[in-house]
């Protein structure tokens, strides 16, 4: 029997990764597939498509509409250093608390307007996700977790992932270069089911 896993390249700075996360999880639950979260940072040689002149205003409108659809009050935030937040993901994964950790960090950033580069904020997120605060704090400086982060960055760069979110499954890729390309939960479900049909056929 074919077992599918969806790979999602993401960063906590990305509001579309946050919105897309809700849709992807819904689609994955419908289709009965798992999700692999891969940390992303802009590769040095990246050459993403240029943004249109009215991109910022379009983003605001899109996020407002998505907020209403999800029943959330999503705030647009300036980019911060997310390396600690991403490093903590591997500790959370190891402890079996990855999904609640993602949710707490994303919510802290886009619902509460908190600075997720602050280790105190991150530790509070970790504790809310069911992790040991002391264990989490100590994990942020452990080489094994930092190495996993760099491995994810290198994986994304090797795959020429230049924008996020990007979804992959069974050697097929769904790229989002602009917000209007972000698929709905229905669109993601159809994409997953199509891949599954081709893989089994």
- Estimated radius of gyration: 17 Å
Range of strand content: 5-15%
Order of helices and strands, N to C?
EHEHHHHHHEEH
Low-confidence sequence ranges:
none
The average pLDDT value, as a whole number, equals 94
How many beta-strand runs? 4
Strand order of the largest sheet: 2-1-3-4
Biggest beta sheet attributes: 4 strands, mixed
Percent helix, as a range, is: 40-55%
Count of separate DSSP helical elements: 8
- Span between termini: 11 Å
Shape: globular
Counting helices, strands and paired strands, the structural category is: alpha+beta
Characterize the structure shown:
This protein is an alpha+beta fold and 201 residues long. Helices cover 53% and strands 10% of the residues. The protein contains 8 helices and 4 strands. The chain has helices at 15-31, 55-70, 83-94, 98-110, 119-128, 133-139, 143-158, 185-200; strands at 5-10, 34-39, 166-169, 172-175. It has a 4-stranded mixed beta sheet. Helix 1 crosses helix 2 (55-70) and helix 4 packs across helix 5. It is globular. The relative contact order is 0.21. The model has no long low-confidence stretch (mean pLDDT 94).
């Amino acid at each position: 029997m074919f077992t599918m896993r969806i790979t999602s390249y993401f960063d906590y700075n990305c509001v579309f990764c946050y919105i897309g996360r809700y849709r992807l999880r819904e689609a994955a639950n419908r289709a009965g597939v798992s999700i692999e979260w891969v940390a992303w940072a802009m590769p040095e040689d990246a050459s993403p498509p240029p943004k249109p002149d009215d991109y910022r205003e379009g983003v605001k409108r899109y996020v407002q509409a998505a907020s209403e659809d999800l029943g959330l009050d999503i705030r647009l935030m300036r980019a911060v250093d997310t390396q600690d937040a991403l490093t903590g993901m591997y500790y959370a994964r190891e402890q079996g608390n990855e999904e609640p950790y993602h949710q707490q960090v994303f919510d802290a950033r886009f619902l509460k307007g908190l600075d997720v580069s602050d280790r105190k904020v991150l530790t509070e997120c970790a504790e809310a996700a069911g992790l040991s605060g002391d264990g989490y704090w100590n994990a942020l400086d452990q080489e094994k977790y930092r190495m996993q982060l760099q491995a994810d960055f290198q994986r994304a760069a090797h795959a020429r992932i230049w924008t996020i979110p990007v979804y992959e499954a069974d050697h097929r890729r769904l790229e989002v270069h602009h917000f209007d390309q972000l698929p709905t939960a229905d669109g993601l479900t159809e994409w997953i089911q199509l891949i599954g049909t081709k893989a089994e056929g």
